[in-house]
Amino acid sequence: MTAPLPKADGTPSFLPYGRQTIEDDDIAAVAAALRGDYLTTGPLVSRFESAFAAAVRADHAVVCSNGTAALYLAAKALGLGPGSKVIVPSITFLATASAPHLAGAEIVFADVDPNSGLMRAEDLEKAIARSGHADAVFNVHLNGQCGPVETIHEIARRHGIRIVDDGCHALGTSYRLGGAEKLVGENALSDMTVFSFHPVKTVTMGEGGAVTTNDSKLDETLRLYRNHGMTREASAFETEQDAFDHSGHAHPWYYELVEPGFNWRITDIQCALGLSQLAKLTRFTARRRALAAAYDAMLAPLAPILKPVAHTDCLPTLHLYPVLIDFKACGQSRAEVMARLHAEGIGTQVHYYPVHRQRYYAERYGQLELPGADRYYARALSLPFFAAMALSDVARVIEALRRVLRL
């Protein structure tokens, strides 16, 4: 696994903020799937589900078309809909809020720690008080780090609130609970965990998502809503005169609609890539941790103008490497810094614009005061971070930052 090669003129290649790592065996796995008997809903789907459940130590994994679909399926599996309220931290991608909202729930935005972007216990308490009541919290493991999951669990359970972990950034991340290591996705403190396999994630399927759970009923419901809300299980059929023959056997062609739903299925092609990528999770995790450690060490002299996002007590496999920059002290706007870095061949991005400030939600719920989210957003900038980077690439990014920020 090597960094992008220099261009023909010998100058360094452009470093994007994130990039997939696709190797020859990944391509071979996809090609084999294309030559197989199934392109979708075939044996590779169930193989990936079994392998993924084992990788995160969950009892069940339901794979679907993307991470947004996974969030929606989790909301539907919990029975969230009109009249429901879901708490979501404001620093996250749109889908964490929009998926349960599309299922019919109203969103209650929570503030976050201005230095980590993660929801704190007090943020959850305030959101509960503001909501009057809440049915679920979608807790985001931003950038690959966990917040105070044990305290959040205690608060949520005390109020009768279900917990969905948004682990789309956190495949491979672990935390300590009662002296034991627990993986994000193991659901030691949550009802379900949602994952994404977008190209810039640690493991990619091109697009793809998954929900893990240890509850067999939730697993069953997730599978129902993944496939149009229809069932082929004879034990679930209620229209008996159409479902069964005179001897009581289910007709082989028959299926029954429980509730209208969407097609959130995934293909064997994607699962072929997913299986190949998942086999490399240990290697990708080690590489990301090494790159993060290098960034941490090399950025230390640039404080306090620039510093990494605050670390938590977990052992993260980072999806992103964001830093917090005092742009006012640098005498430059964030847009100016990004443009100058781009000219040096360094790609950056901002994760994220607070969702409570998005036009749709601001018009629906009014202007909210969430100072932690606003403070985090004002300083955040994600640096290049992907498994194929070399340590020399990290040094190159640091030197470019020094020049651009005049540090």
Overall, the morphology is: globular
Instruction: Supply the CATH superfamily name of the largest domain.
Output: Type I PLP-dependent aspartate aminotransferase-like (Major domain)
Helix content: 25-40%
- Number of beta-strand segments: 14
Strand order of the largest sheet: 1-9-8-5-4-2-3
CATH class of the largest domain: Alpha Beta
Briefly note the structural class of the backbone.
Answer: alpha/beta
Mean pLDDT: 96
Low-confidence stretches: none
Present the secondary structure layout.
Layout: H1 24-34, H2 43-56, E1 60-64, H3 67-77, E2 85-89, H4 95-102, E3 106-110, H5 121-131, E4 136-140, H6 149-158, E5 162-166, E6 174-177, E7 180-183, E8 192-196, E9 209-213, H7 216-226, E10 230-231, H8 240-243, E11 256-257, H9 268-278, H10 281-299, E12 306-308, E13 321-325, H11 327-330, H12 334-343, H13 359-365, H14 371-379, E14 380-383, H15 391-405
Parallel strand pairs: 2-3, 2-4, 4-5, 5-8
Antiparallel strand pairs: 1-9, 6-7, 8-9, 10-11, 12-13, 13-14
